[in-house]
Amino acid sequence: MKNTLLLSALVAGAATFSTLPALAGDQDFTLVNKTGYEINQVYVSPSKSDEWEEDVLGQDVLADGDRVNITFSRKETTCNWDLKVVYSDDTSAVWDAFNLCEVSKIKIYYNHKTDETSATYE
Fold first, then answer.
1. What percent of the chain stands above pLDDT 70?
2. Residue pLDDT, tens place only, 79-116
3. Total number of domains constituting the chain
């Protein structure tokens, strides 16, 4: 179905389905699922790290067409983050080194014809 892909892109900290907190970090962004599939897990980790952080969705899922706000603490200073999403069929897609200090929204897509996952950002 979907292949694990390594693409250049971006990602960040801890997710919330409510409005952004008043003390949000500069790396906060909105992740939009336009893949046609449900996403069960979202991980963001500093690009310099060798390990993924916790699943920012927790017990929640990100349905196709939905969005989630991913927020950072105000003290976070790192701008470059990696993003990993895991779909309901346990396949995943990974993006490296998004500059979240410059990005406010990431939309992810899946192309059935080419079997490729991609991302656009604003």
1. 80
2. 999 999 999 999 999 999 999 999 999 999 999 999 99
3. 1
Burial string for 61-78 (b: 16+ CB within 10 Å, else e) reads bbeeeebbbbbbeeebeb
Look at residue 119 and tell me if it is in a domain.
Answer: no
Give the C-alpha separation, 86 to 42, whole Å: 7
In 4-114, at which residue ranges do the beta strands (DSSP E only) sit?
A: 6-8, 14-16, 29-34, 39-46, 67-71, 80-87, 92-99, 105-111
Check which CATH number belongs to the domain holding 101 and give it.
2.60.40.2890
| C-alpha to C-alpha distance for 11 and 17, rounded to whole angstroms | 16
Does 73 fall in a domain? yes
- What pLDDT score does 45 carry? 93
Q: Which domain holds residue 13?
A: 6-113
